[in-house]
Amino acid sequence: MLVSRPLRGWARAQGRAPGLRWLCCCENDRADADKGVRWMRVAITGSTGLVGGALAADLASDGHQVIRLVRRPPRGGGEVGWDPLTAGSLNPAALSGIAAVVHLAGAPIAAGRWTDARKAELRASRITSTDTLVQAMTAATDRPAVLLCGSAIGWYGDTSDRAVDETAPAGSGFLAELVRDWEAAAWQARPAGIRVASLRSGIVLSRRGGMLSRLVPLFRLGLGARIGAGSQYVSWVTLTDEVRAIRFLLDQPALDGPVNLTAPEPVTNAELTTALGRVLGRPALLRVPAPLLRAGLGEVSSELLSGARVLPRKLTEAGFTFRYPDLAGALTAELAPGQPAA
């Protein structure tokens, strides 16, 4: 994938010189530059996570230089240390000459009960970290042109069976408020001429991690179950298409603001349960009662018992094609023999 021309277009639109450092091969690779070979430097937060790790590997495999922002002491020139919760901890010079920043860091949403302390941690890991990152980006001498910031379809709240796209207003509840403030923090980079897109991701399906990796062992044991009534919608996307969509957005200077990263065919929880059981050849006849979930998980259960039917309007209108648009094909491909074990 070539990204130099669209980024150059964005630079021109912002009044920047087209010969920016991130559009050229480094000085040691001038022979490749003469041949028209282009690569870019991309900084990624959350690069040890499911999506961040896959994105970093995919970019590197195409010859792009990935700079990982890490909370621990950096190991080598491909890493930069920072403290996401401390303003000024990220040296702006570390981002000078970077083409784009992809911000995917954040504490896991459903890793425990939403106590007041846990809610504060979830907010700080997303909003404060974004503030810290934007501060460094805007202060960089040769600042990045693009910020792709993590977000979530939690923005929409519970939409029942009503389909929504990026034009829909924010819903209600803790997650909707969190996502609203998270996106607002990222948007602070916009006045500095940085293109900002918020990645409203759905449930990312991968055998290597996330929800699917936790469900597969249970389903193999015959313990597959729908949650509550099972009528709540699940808006999902494969890890493959999540990474492809992020790469696509790096290459689309006209796309900014919220972008739904969800497959075009959301399903109900009951349909997901049936499809997964069918692909694994196991029955999935059980049901987890809503009162049991509420007793065990507290407020977190509201996110499992409600749903959002989200459509990727911006991606599809921009010409993005999903490799796995339907759930049956996605699960079959992800769980096919020879795939990495969960």
Beta-strand percentage range: 15-25%
Strand line-up of the largest beta sheet: 3-2-1-4-5-7-12
Instruction: Please give the largest β-sheet.
Output: 7 strands, parallel
Overall pLDDT: 88
Oligomeric state, counting identical vs distinct chains? single chain
The unreliable regions are 1-37
Secondary-structure element order, N to C: HHEHEEEHEEHEEHEEEHEEHEHHEHH
Shape: globular
Note the gap between the termini: 29 Å
- Could you estimate the helical fraction of the residues in percent? 25-40%
Class per helix and strand makeup: alpha/beta
Could you list some keywords that capture this structure?
17% strand; 12 helices; 7-stranded parallel beta sheet; two-stranded parallel ribbon; 342 residues
Kindly describe this structure.
The protein is built from twelve helices and 15 strands. By secondary structure, it is of the alpha/beta class. The strands form five sheets. The chain has a seven-stranded parallel β-sheet with strand order 3-2-1-4-5-7-12, with helices on both faces. A two-stranded parallel sheet has the order 6-15. Helix 3 crosses helix 7, helix 4 (116-139) packs parallel to helix 5 (174-187) and helix 8 packs across helix 12 (327-334). The protein is globular. The model is unreliable at 1-37 (pLDDT under 50).
